[in-house]
Write the structure tokens for this entry.
Amino acid sequence: MKHITDRHWDNNPPRGLAISIALEANELLEHFQWQEDSIGNTDEIAEELADVFIYAIQFANHYDIDITKSIMKKLDKSSKKYPVEHFAEASADERKEAWLKAKKEFKKDTVL
């Protein structure tokens, strides 16, 4: 991104980029704090979302991550974890129950 390289902002450490992603995501959340509908307009929300994407792209570039490939891989993994037949025709309560069950199954098999 030329804007980033022109300002020599392209050498931020991954820790700083990860923190920036979280901080910008929090700024996006502020538009919805205490209510269901946004307190800002679509342009303001788009700006906050763009900030999240900019830092996420920088982070991906640092680790040479192919964003499209990683999204496709994640969606494939998610489709196995959350099979469509458990969600498509289910009620909201049934979807929540299926989601919680899948989360618990995943957690017990995951070691950090």
Notes: The domain at 1-65 is CATH 1.10.287.1080 (Helix Hairpins). The radius of gyration is 18 Å. DSSP finds five helices and no strands in the chain.
